[in-house]
User: What shape does this take?
Amino acid sequence: MSIWEKFKAFITESKRVLRVTKKPSKEEFIAIVKVSGIGILLIGLIGFLIHMTSSLIS
Assistant: This one.
C-alpha cells in the first residue's frame, strides 16, 4: 500500500467515525465530567500517598 492509499483510507475512516459520533447531551456531559474528575482525584491521591510513604521511609 502506498502512502497515498494509506492517506485516503485514513480520510475515509475518519469521515465514517465523524458520521457515527454525536454531541453528548447535557446530562451525558455532566456525567463524563464527574467520572473524569473522580478519576483525576483518585490518581492524585494515590500519588500523594506514595510520595508521603516514600518520604516517611527515607
